[in-house]
């Protein structure tokens, strides 16, 4: 493995970790800046490919009212404005912690890459200990533009 490939993997892993930190800090423009201009987040059920479970789409009604588009088995937030809106706190005063583990990064070309990782979200309501709220996995597509890696697509299966 070359130094350039190692550097690319490191930069992408840092982007993956930064996503949770920025989201937990309140999101907004810093969150949208993690994505390319037409970047997107897709929400889909972890069980969508199983025929023995009626999976549904996570947070379907909330997502549609927040500007997401319904595309098959997923909600899609596309573009900076919708990503910005997706990242803002939603009336829940709990402190959140997005925890990502085991990122597997694949460099596809000098300007494209993909990754898979696992995620957990803990919430700490006022005066209570942290509680595990969500588990799932991320599937990511990245683009390198102006010497910087950014998310093109982040699919969150929960």
TrEMBL record:
InterPro entries: NTF2-like_dom_sf (IPR032710), SnoaL-like (IPR037401). Residues 6-155 form the SnoaL-like domain. It holds the Pfam family SnoaL_4. This is SnoaL-like domain-containing protein. It comes from Sphingobium chlorophenolicum L-1. The lineage of its organism: Bacteria, Pseudomonadati, Pseudomonadota, Alphaproteobacteria, Sphingomonadales.
């Amino acid at each position: 493995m070359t130094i350039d490939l190692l550097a690319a993997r490191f930069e992408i892993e840092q982007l993956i970790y930064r996503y949770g930190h920025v989201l937990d800090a309140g999101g907004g423009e810093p969150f949208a800046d993690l994505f390319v201009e037409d970047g997107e987040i897709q929400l889909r059920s972890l069980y969508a490919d199983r025929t023995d479970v009626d999976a549904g789409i996570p947070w379907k009604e909330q997502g549609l009212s927040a500007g997401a588009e319904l595309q098959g088995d997923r909600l899609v937030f596309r573009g900076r404005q919708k990503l910005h809106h997706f990242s803002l706190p939603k009336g829940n005063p709990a402190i959140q912690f997005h925890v990502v583990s085991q990122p597997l990064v694949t460099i596809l070309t000098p300007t494209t890459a993909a990754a898979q990782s696992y995620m957990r979200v803990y919430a700490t309501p006022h005066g209570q200990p942290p509680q595990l709220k969500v588990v799932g996995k991320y599937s990511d597509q990245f683009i390198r533009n102006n010497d910087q890696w950014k998310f093109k697509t982040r699919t969150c299966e929960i």
